[in-house]
Amino acid sequence: MDTALYERAAARLAAFGLTLTEADSALLALAVEKAEWTVKNDCNVPEVPEGLLPVAADMSAGEFLRVKKMFGTDFLTESGLDLEQAVKQIQLGDTTVAFSGDSQTPEQRLDVIIDALLKSGRGEFACYRKIRW
């Protein structure tokens, strides 16, 4: 596992207000490893390119949140995530989605965050892709 990528993913989660516990470190390490292999396999490269480290960190954070949400019944209340202010607007490339009012539940907002983290930057893989023979 790439420790620099682990630190980036942990910093990304901290930016959302999530405080990682000792028990979370193993789960985050698995999420980082999954993101690493996804990038390596999709691009057919032996190491995660430096230009894709932010994308892999977002993928790691998204995978971590997805698994925590799946298995942690009290995750939304215990996580420290402020989902009331978390999602106002999401921009992926030239597409922008803005949310207004309280039309979404905190769980729906978390799902939007997870989806954005897992999918954002995938278009950048093409810049680093190598041909397989």
Report on the structure:
- There is one protein chain.
- The chain is globular and about 50 Å long.
- The protein is built from six helices and two strands.
- Helix 1 (about 5-15) crosses helix 2 and helix 2 (about 20-45) packs across helix 3.
- With about 130 residues, the chain is mainly alpha-helical.
Key terms:
133 residues; mainly alpha; two-stranded antiparallel ribbon; 6 helices; globular
Mean pLDDT: 83
Regarding quaternary structure, what we see is single chain
Note the total helix count: 6
Radius of gyration: 15 Å
- Outline the biggest β-sheet: 2 strands, antiparallel
Morphology call: globular
**Strands ordered across the widest β-sheet:** 1-2
The low-pLDDT segments are none
Structural class by helix and strand composition = mainly alpha
Order of helices and strands: HHHHHEEH
The helicity comes to 55-70%
